[in-house]
Design brief:
187 residues, mainly alpha, 2 domains, 8 helices
Length: 187
Amino acid sequence: PIWAVGSAWILLAVSAVLLLLAFRPDWGRRAVRWALARVPRVNPDRWAQALDGLFDGLAPLRSGRRGLALLAWSVVAWACVVFFYWTLLRAFLPHPPALAAPFLVCVLGLGMAVPSSPGTVGVFHAVARYALTVPFAVPVDQAVTIAFAAHAFQYLMMCLLGLAGLARESLSLEWLRAQVVHIEGAG
């Protein structure tokens, strides 16, 4: 379809710009400062400093070896996410469509840009529901069940991993709470 070709060209152009900025970060910094200087009521130095992290984050792309390693690990990470959703779909659907899992991952990633309540409760479920029902004709009740199961599993895993991390560092929830209070009091 024409929209896929257009999207591919946009992705290619953005990738080329990011690669260029990896080798010429000074060009990016100058362009950002130039653009921000023309925006009223914006402190260009403050925003430029915040965006400097973006240019520093592109530094590994300057090394072919590190760039390839970064690309390989990115593919592995995304493959794990797609595999999680594929196994989840297999748990609820006898024969899920082949593209349902990668499509769901992409749509959920974009859907997280939508303003929502803490934890994306509601938005996550709606996005997942429509990502499964509209293009793949998954029944609504199954799509909603899959959305809730995915969200619950992710929350459970994050909580368990967080508690394991606290325990490994010999920290407690009380210590963490005190740190939050201290930081909020300082701000």
